Amino acid sequence: MSADVFARAFDEDPLAADIEFRTLDPSRKGYGAWGTGSTRESEGSPEEIDGWLDGHTVLVVHAAPVTRELLQHNPSVRLVACARGGPVNIDLGAAKDLGVTITTTPGKNADAVADLTIGFLISLWRNLSDATNHLATAELQGLPVARSTFEGAHWFGRELAGRRLGLVGLGHVARLVAKRARALDLDVVAYDPFVPIKADTGISRVESLDELLSGSEAVSLHARATADNRHMIGSRELALMPQGSVLINTARETLLDEYALLRSLHENHIHGAAIDVWEPDGPWREIVAHPRSVVTPHIGGATYETLDRGARMLRDELNRYLHDQTLLWAVS
């Protein structure tokens, strides 16, 4: 997320006239002497940000690292606004100790992830990955290339209307997935012991994860990752799903035992799987190679609209801050 995205949003609705607004696009170099285990998934170095700050009160970042040392060296900074749902590039403990407020942009990528989830669902039930790979490799292998309806019968798939989609977790993304799925005439059920379901959403609640898995032809994971739900979908849970069902994970990689998923695919119990997040030490290469899988490199939120939405959310949050109003998304 480049600095000009923030600048464009601030130009649309300028902040107070007496504010000095500066921009910097950090380099992609790693940490130097200020390396720390309290931040991750960042770009640039704390030294680079430190050399650029000059008595500023507010620091707006996307992935730039905000460490304890950076905040200690810049006591003028009272607010760090981070264009991410989870500010993993910020040392939240240090911010709390130093009285620095952190605010974020929860849900900025929800529409994008919901779109991708529905795209995955269509791709799996229509066997798009296998059909596309066939065209890409058939002539190289001396195989016939499907050019007619009859040859294409190898990739017979399923239509969406009337099928049941089970949502594990019912946060912002899942509710948007449900809205899109209902428009496609899917039956939507959800399991989330922590979130109530409104009557007008068209979503039905099930009382247990087992009930959702056993009764859904497609399952999409949208739970928040915790220490207690690591590999919440494993061999036992996959076996509960109906023969020929599909599984989608656009949430967190830790929710799914990918070795169990690969076995289920090889055994033809699960028809197909689509994952946008995967464990680096898991069998993602083998899953990529499977003909009934779709694997993407965490592109769920990778849309221009997500960038613009995040910048505007922070712009509005800064306006609240400047007018001594309550911040909507403060985390510290």
Based on the model shown, name its key terms.
332 residues; seven-stranded parallel beta sheet; elongated; Rossmann fold; 2 domains
3D structure, described in words:
With about 325 residues, this protein is α/β, with parallel strands linked by helices. It has two domains: about 5-105 and about 305-320, 3-Layer(aba) Sandwich (Rossmann fold); about 110-295, Rossmann fold. The protein contains twelve helices and ten strands. The strands form two sheets. It has a seven-stranded parallel beta sheet. A three-stranded parallel beta sheet has the order 1-2-3, with helices on both faces. Strand 8 (about 245-250), helix 10 and strand 9 (about 270-275) form a beta-alpha-beta unit. Helix 1 (about 5-10) crosses helix 12 (about 305-320) and helix 5 crosses helix 7. The longest helix has 19 residues, at about 305-320. The mean pLDDT is about 90.
**Gross morphology:** elongated
What would CATH call the class of the largest domain? Alpha Beta
Please give the share of residues in helix: 25-40%
Tally of structural domains: 2
Number of DSSP-assigned strands: 10
- Tell me which oligomeric state these chains represent: single chain
| H/E series | HHEHEHEHHEHEEHEHEHEHEH
Q: What topology, given as strand order, has the largest sheet?
A: 6-5-4-7-8-9-10
| Uncertain stretches of 5 or more adjacent residues | none
Main beta-sheet strand count, sense and barrel state? 7 strands, parallel
CATH architecture of the largest domain: 3-Layer(aba) Sandwich
CATH homologous superfamily placement of the largest domain: NAD(P)-binding Rossmann-like Domain
User: How many angstroms does the end-to-end distance come to?
Assistant: 23 Å
Count of helical stretches: 12
Structural class designation:
alpha/beta
